Amino acid sequence: MYSVKEAFYTLQGEGVQAGRASVFCRFTGCNLWSGREQDRASAQCHFCDTDFVGTDGQNGGKFSTAEALTAHLASLWPHSDSRVIPYVVFTGGEPLLQLDTPLIEAMHRAGFEIGVETNGTLPAPAGIDWLCVSPKGAAPLAQRHGDELKLVFPQAEAPPEAFEAMQFDHFLLQPMDTSLVASDAPATPLQATVAHCMAHPRWRLSLQTHKIAGID
Fold this sequence. Notes:
The protein is 16% helix and 26% strand. By secondary structure, the chain is of the alpha/beta class.
């Protein structure tokens, strides 16, 4: 059984794949926060800006088999151009609580390339085509290699230098949502992120372009 908060067709807004047409599948649940505001302050990840509770979102629901969820997600991809590989992004919450080999294989049979955005605390199953790990606070990483490490910045318990020896092809810093940062901070998250990338050019700036463009 797969529990999906929402699923929709959009443009990827963040990271190396920004701008790519994608079907997003947001699973319910996370292992670092309950999703309830009353638990935010005590959660391992306290700056999440996403609703992943329940199955009441757009195209959300419960799916009893990998084939059923695959058919549901494939129906959201609108293009028949054979030159374009359909792309699905599994996210959450924490998608690796639910993403498994049967679903990966079913999505591949349907012709999809698979991207995953995970907090990295769970090992990723084989077969993922693009793996983005986004560390959260002091939560220990089980997944220490992948395509992209995208670090929300700044995090006192997760300084960029703690990850630089890990095996990722791309290292990105993404400014923390300003609504979740104290107003008396000495610099905005964007200013701090730009300054760090300028001083440490291994890191690239990642912006939430979907918010800038007003894309859901």
